[in-house]
Amino acid sequence: MNNIQSQDAQFTQYPNQQLKTEDEIDLRELFSVIWQGKWLIIAITAVFAIGSVIFAIMQPNTYKSEALLAPASEEKSGGLGALAGQFGGLASMAGINLGGGGGVDKTQMAIEVMKSRQFTSEFIQKHNLLPDLMAVEKWNMSDNTISYDDEMYDATSKKWLREVKAPFKPKPSMQEAFKVFTKIITVNSAKDTGMVTVSVEHLSPAIAQQWVTWLIEDINKVMKEKDVAEANRSSEFLTKQIAQTNIADIRTILYQLIEEQTKTIMFAEVRDEYVFKTIDPALVPEVKAGPKRALICVLGTMLGGMLAVMLVLIRHFVRKED
After folding, report:
1. How high is the pLDDT of residue 262?
2. How far apart are CA 41 and CA 31, in angstroms?
3. ∠ Cα 314 320 322 (to 5°)
4. Separation of alpha carbons 218 and 246, rounded Å
5. Domain residues for 19?
6. Which of 99, 103, 102, 96 lies closest to 238 in space, CA to CA?
7. What are the Polysaccharide chain length determinant N-terminal domain coordinates in residue numbering (predicted)?
């Protein structure tokens, strides 16, 4: 009885020491279990390491081409709002709303247009990029040609052969193409300098360079056509307003606004680099951008080691409970 009371008193007096002893026993048991299963851990880790090496070697090289762009300077005299601050009061007498001079930054708008589904779909269809985007298998460095997946696309007959379930069709839809395209294209704008970088990563370095060049050309063309169409509509509207008013001052303002729209159209037509000016054009890359084979091997080996340790511990504690 006295011995039991003595042990209880000892535990009450040194509870932390007792817990510490149990923790040490658990850690010793843990390391002992791992040591006993070391050969299984080594075997599983080796399998994962070899598998990751094989996987990394099988991955084809990808190449990234990029171009550095600068926002093109905008004409201060363009747009319906050019004279709004000066003649807005007089124009309102005729019931004409000239609008303000603010709005969305044209450079940022062009970047968002490049990322949009509509622009991407039109870009892919215009340049017939679908096979090189969805069915490419590898790039042949010797003759700079592309090999396609025979189960997806027949390059000779230009026919899609892939087997998919409804509602998908053998030929990929623009929604599928958009998802793939957004993974290989990058458009970034530097906040401090305002410079814009456009890059494309592809199995073929020549295709990557060509797509970047086409992207820059097409976005400048799309934004120019948009502004020209808007200026033409504005001119038509202003011409109708001139016919509906007899106030000399208002007619003078409207003629001046039409002149501004004409300047906007002329400015757009004479400049190809309408939104972006190319500072550093896209080149055919000589060095691969991916895959990072060393990183794949390291991560694969680490994953195998962790799974092996977990398997050994789980097996031990399951047997212990039984």
Report:
1. 83
2. 13
3. 105
4. 44
5. 2-57+294-321
6. 96
7. 23-126
Residue 103 is predicted with a pLDDT of: 52
Distance CA 12, CA 291 (A): 61
Q: 121 CB contacts (<8 Å, ≥6 apart)?
A: 174, 177, 178
Q: Residues 13, 124: one domain?
A: no
Verify that 129 and 273 share a domain, yes or no.
yes
Interacting residues of 133 by C-beta distance below 8 A, sequence separation 6+: 124, 177, 180, 181
> Is residue 24 located within the same domain as residue 77?
no
Same domain, 38 and 138: no
From the list 121, 115, 253, 240, the residue with the least C-alpha distance to 184 is: 115
- In the numeric block, the tokens 């510490």 are attached to 20
Classify residue 298: in a domain, yes or no. Answer: yes
Backbone angles phi, psi at 228, to 5 degrees: -65, -45
Q: Which residue, chain included where needed, has tokens 């623009």?
A: 174
N- to C-terminal Cα separation, the chain: 35
Residue 69 above 90 pLDDT?
A: yes
Q: Is the dihedral of CA 166, 172, 173, 175 positive or negative?
A: positive
Query: With left for phi above 0 and alpha for psi between -120 and 50, is residue 288 left, alpha or beta?
Result: beta
The arithmetic mean of pLDDT across residues 201-206, rounded, is 95
Q: What is the DSSP letter of 65?
A: E
Only one residue has tokens 């929604």, namely: 175
Any bridge partners for residue 99, and if so which? Answer: none
Residues linked to residue 140 through DSSP beta bridges, in sequence order: 145
To which H or E segment does residue 45 belong? Answer: helix 38-58
Beta carbons within 8 Å of 128's beta carbon, 6+ residues apart:
none
Residues 236-251 pLDDT 10s: 888 888 888 888 878 8
Q: Is 7 exposed, middle or buried (0-12, 13-18, 19+ CB in 10 A)?
A: exposed
Residue 248 in any domain: the answer is yes
* Same domain? 51 vs 177: no
Distance CA 186, CA 111 (A): 10
